[in-house]
Every structure is written in structure tokens, then in C-alpha cells.
Amino acid sequence: MMFGSTQSNQGANNWRQQLNEFVKQNQKELAALAWGLMLQRGESEDTLGIDLEPKPHFVYCPRNAIEALNHQVENQLQEILGILDAHDPKQEVLIIGIGNGQIKLVQFEPEPSPPDCFAEVAQDKDVDSLLEQLEERMCEQIVLKS
Questions:
Q1: Is the CB of residue 21 less than 8 Å from the CB of residue 140?
Q2: Does the global pTM surpass 0.90?
Q3: Core-most of 8, 17, 61, 112, by most CB within 10 Å?
């Protein structure tokens, strides 16, 4: 039964599934947001993140904070640092999901490319209103169980 699949997986990993579903449903908008924010900020060591607590919202994850966390967890995040180094914002979207004291890397290559998604979406929305709209959708679609 399809409907029971999300309910049977409650607990620590449920936020990961909800985040995956949110990303699938909002790929073009997330790609447009990531590109638009990069244009606003210029080249930056920060990675876009989604912090799910206290309610889902976008954050910036500074490179030095990710490196410090990697050091604290005895280099268990080394792969994530490698992915960050190889990230090409013109081709793919990279977001760090943060929930329940854990992180999840979300990476996808949208069709069309992030700059093209931004050109399409930005015709009727600026970056700030896109950010607000996506945060509203996240709050509706991602619900953490305490």
C-alpha cells in the first residue's frame, strides 16, 4: 500500500524522506534560488542549507563551520568536503539539510541548468520572494516529530 510507506518510517529518518520529497517537488525553484543567491553574494565559501528546526528555513553553511564539524566528528564529513570542492553551481544544486542533530547532503542536476531555471522563475519573482515562498512550502511539507 503506497499511503502507508511514509507513516511506517517515522522517527529519525522521516525528515530525510520529507526533505527528499520537497526537493523533488521544487527542483526548478530550488535551482533558481541557489543561482539567484549565488549571483547576489558572488563567489562564496558558503553552501546553501536548510535548517529544519525550530521550523524549516534556509541558512548559509560557512565552509569553515563544516570543516570544524568534520574535525569534531573525526573526519566523517570528509566526503562532503570533497563534494563541496567539486561543486559546479552552473550545472548542479547543492544543499545541506540539517535536522535532528544530523546532516544530509542534497545534490541534483536540474533540467534546465540553474541559470536557466533562474531566468524562467525570476521573470515573475525576485530572490527574496522566491525564498519566502519556498520556506512557506517547506513548513507545509516538512513536519518534524518531536
A1: no
A2: no
A3: 61
